[in-house]
Amino acid sequence: MSARESVPAGLLRFVTAGSVDDGKSTLIGRLLHDSKGLHADQLDALQAASRRRGFRGLDLSLVTDGLIAEREQGITIDVAYRYFATPARKFVIGDCPGHVQYTRNMVTAASTADLAILLVDARAGIVAQTRRHAFVAHWLGVPEVLLAVNKMDLVGWDPQRFAAIADEFAELATTLGFERTAAIPLSALDGDLVVERGDAAPWYRGPTLLERLEAAPGAASRACGAARLPGQRVARVSGGNRQPGVHAHGGAFRGYQGTLASGTLAPGDAVVAQPSGTPARVERILGPSGELGLAIAGDAITVQLDREIDVARGDVLAQADRPAQVLREPETELCWFDDAPLDPSRSWLLKQGATTVRARVARLERRFDIEGLEWVDAHGSLSMNDIGRVRLELQRPIAADPYACNRALGSFILIDEASHRTVAAGTIAGTAAGSVVGSTGP
């Protein structure tokens, strides 16, 4: 097996979502508690907070509900991130709000997730918000979704009830086109089938939730795509004046610095600078600890090219035989965040990584009806939390990939120029006729 193929599974980023009171925060608290992911001082603080709320034991939902407003209302508003590890791997958890009006927070968390856990109450089954969150997860390219059928203790651990919910979700997942799905019965409150199996469901032969998480493919799968290095900085690197984290060997050189978004990169590889289309070859690669023979997706690196070319912050070094598209009028899908509806006559700032360019709506094509799981007429605008298909017109072209192929180069946000609010998040859906600018090859 070559070095390019032996990429470890590594970190798993996952998000939890579902309707209000389905038990998302309690589930995360249970995961952290039972996997020994809480420190002694955290446990002491949790016990004190639980006593203040009148709990005899631990209120595990307080592990993630950190905002004062959340604790007063008993709901999750913001996205709460937590970190834990088992002997098998490391995890980053994003706990998303359940209320419909906070769907935009779900978009934020799911945009970097490798897996989504959708919770449902065993008594209620699949509801509208389950469908909404499932669609958002699929839209944002989350490859695997787990249905956690929580509160099974409240339906007597009825296997028929679980099977009915699992079958309904399997049909939904097939309609949306998820790569991998599974359903797990559990009780976040009691802990059965979260980390430990417990004795409540002898009829269930599948893995626990944690076992499934430990076995899931992670972000390292990005190393399988075409190489993309969006530039954060172009710096003069020298032995006598080293940049932080960069170890120069030999004379001064002009280094192109950034985090490899996908694929792998090695000395000798042919690349093309985009959007200009200028070819070059990788001379060497430097990392925080010195020179690298191979960089993989996620590595922060400095690249020296074999020639001086015009490359600026925000440009992309792409694999020469598989370059990105250079787009002026990209077809996009937007999730509208702002309270005020989308005004197609206005312009915004489109920010994609380190690239910022002015954009306007060339055509608002349609809106996705999450209830009916179909595209419908947008009626000239988008409201908060709506997802729509929009063709944008950019002031200058950008290097981009369809989001389904590359999250980093296929995603962006729209910013209000006056207030600097983020009004929408978007993905590159493809290209319209005439929107690809020039040749990008060497």
Would you mind describing this structure in some detail?
- The protein has 442 residues and is an alpha+beta fold.
- It has 3 domains: 12-222, Rossmann fold (3-Layer(aba) Sandwich); 225-319, Elongation Factor Tu (Ef-tu), domain 3; 325-431, Elongation Factor Tu (Ef-tu), domain 3, CATH 2.40.30.10.
- It is built from 7 helices and 25 strands.
- The protein has helices spanning 24-34, 40-52, 68-73, 103-110, 128-139, 159-176, 209-215, and strands at residues 12-18, 80-85, 90-95, 115-121, 144-150, 180-185, 228-230, 233-237, 253-259, 264-265, 270-274, 278-287, 290-292, 295-296, 300-305, 316-319, 325-327, 330-336, 347-352, 355-369, 374-376, 387-394, 398-400, 411-415, 422-431.
- Strands 7, 8, 9, 11, 12, 13, 15 and 16 form an 8-stranded antiparallel sheet that branches. Strands 2-3-1-4-5-6 form a 6-stranded mixed sheet, sandwiched between helices.
- It is globular.
- The chain starts with 11 loop residues before the first strand and ends in an 11-residue tail after the last strand.
